[in-house]
Design brief:
Length: about 375
């Protein structure tokens, strides 16, 4: 007779449902409020890194890749809180520092730890995994002498292993997480109530700046914008993460899908493969600047009329590519309308539509060019 296996141990219970999680105040009137992450797993690390206060925003390459892999497995974002400030990391974006070292209120940090109340909780370095209902599903102390980036990644790996064997409450589709991350949920979580439009993230200054940062001036949609950033920052991340212009999409981040297409000095470029520092003092146009005075451009109207999109994720890149191609074709033909369908498909082949709306996209571009 086969015996029934014992039930797995229950994970640490959630905080009292009636109690609101304490928020951490951050410079600039923003705050970290766990209620903004409703439905999304979060990894919280209360950790004072021995590697130094500046180690967080500059994860070494190997640790960065390992952390990305573990967070993708958990379907979560990582928030690290300590004397080194508050920094966040999503597996598909760069590390962002939201609070400079020494600026967090110790009482507020202690109140947040007390609210979480993981079993066996004590003062010191600790990593916790919260599910989409803010219940603590994993909690593990990190020894004080092991408070390093490698120890943090090892704790992530341990959490991933235990969560993989956990029962059903921990569920989140990867598509759901990617959509949440790509529409800027991470940055929006630091605005009160996560309801106001996303504010541009100001580049760190003073004690959190590095000697490698440069002051850049970008001319985007007719407006000059200044930011201070690492010279390795891509134009895509500068537009989305620093200037809050999220119409330009991050798809493959390898220059293969065309979702990030913008016009730089009138030419089509993949923003994910272009450094922001290379695009200084030349006109940059994104999808936000296509329509006149907030209205719709003929290309946008044609995409609607011809049903040239389904999920819409690639559409901004398709429109920007078609807009740049029109200028190129006018230089080769008497008019842009003279291009045939085969040449048009070839010229737009760098923009991938996973929904397969290619015939409608060609029809929309052809219709718009005849009307322009």
């Amino acid at each position: 007779m086969r015996s029934t296996p014992p039930d797995p141990p229950a994970p640490p219970g959630p905080p009292a449902a009636s109690a609101a999680p304490p928020a951490l105040r951050i410079a600039g009137g923003r705050s970290l409020d766990l209620r903004a992450f409703e439905g999304q797993p979060v990894v919280l690390a209360f950790l004072d890194l021995r590697d130094g206060a500046a180690a967080g925003p500059a994860l070494p390459g190997q640790a960065l890749h390992r952390a990305r892999a573990e967070l993708r497995g958990l379907g979560a974002i990582l928030i690290v809180i300590g004397h080194g400030g508050l920094w966040c990391f999503s597996p598909d974006d760069e590390v962002e520092l939201f609070a400079a070292p020494g600026t967090l209120d110790a009482g507020e940090v202690a109140a947040l730890r007390a609210w979480l109340r993981p079993e066996g909780s004590a003062d010191g370095d600790m990593l916790l995994v919260l599910d989409g209902q803010r219940a603590v599903r994993f909690a593990r102390a990190i020894a004080a002498d092991g408070a390093t980036l490698d120890a943090l990644v090892d704790a992530l790996a341990l959490a991933g292993g235990e969560m993989a064997a956990a029962p059903a409450p921990w569920t989140m589709a990867r598509r759901q997480f990617l959509v949440t991350a790509l529409v800027g949920a991470l940055a929006a979580a630091f605005a009160d109530g996560c309801r106001s439009p996303r504010a541009p993230v100001v580049a760190p200054r003073g004690p959190v700046a590095t000697d490698d940062e440069l002051t850049m001036t970008l001319e985007v949609n007719g407006a000059r914008r200044t930011l201070r950033a690492d010279p390795r920052l891509t134009l895509l991340d500068a537009l989305r993460e620093r200037l809050g212009m999220t119409g330009t999409k991050k798809g493959c981040d390898q220059g293969q899908c065309g979702a990030c297409t913008v016009l730089v000095d009138g030419r089509r470029v993949n923003a994910c493969l272009t450094l922001a520092v290379m695009a200084q003092n030349v006109p940059i146009m994104t999808i936000e600047g296509v329509g006149p005075d907030g209205g719709m451009h003929p290309l946008q109207e044609a995409f609607v009329a011809e049903d040239g999109f389904q999920c819409g994720y690639c559409t901004s890149g398709q429109i920007m590519s078609a807009l740049g191609l029109r200028a190129e074709c006018r230089a080769r033909h008497a008019s842009a309308a003279a291009i045939d369908a085969a040449e048009l498909r070839e010229e737009l082949s760098g923009n991938i539509c996973r929904c397969g709306a290619y015939p409608n996209i060609v029809a929309a571009v052809t219709r718009a060019w005849k009307a322009m």
